[in-house]
Design goal:
mainly alpha, 53 residues, 2 helices
Length: 53
């Protein structure tokens, strides 16, 4: 179901002239990374955050 939803959203983005689909994901989620890899996403950036709690 998740894969179908993503593929549909990506197709809609293409149809509306979008040139890029970008997402963020936690480094601690290897299953999610495999899912995104399977959809064709490529790791390209390193994110940073500062927790204040």
């Amino acid at each position: 179901m998740g894969e179908a939803l993503f593929r549909h959203a990506i197709e809609l983005a293409k149809e509306h002239g979008c040139g890029l689909v970008q997402l963020t994901t936690d480094k601690k989620r290897p299953d999610a990374h495999r899912f995104y890899d399977r959809l064709g996403f490529v790791a390209s950036h390193e994110g940073m955050k500062l927790s204040l709690t």
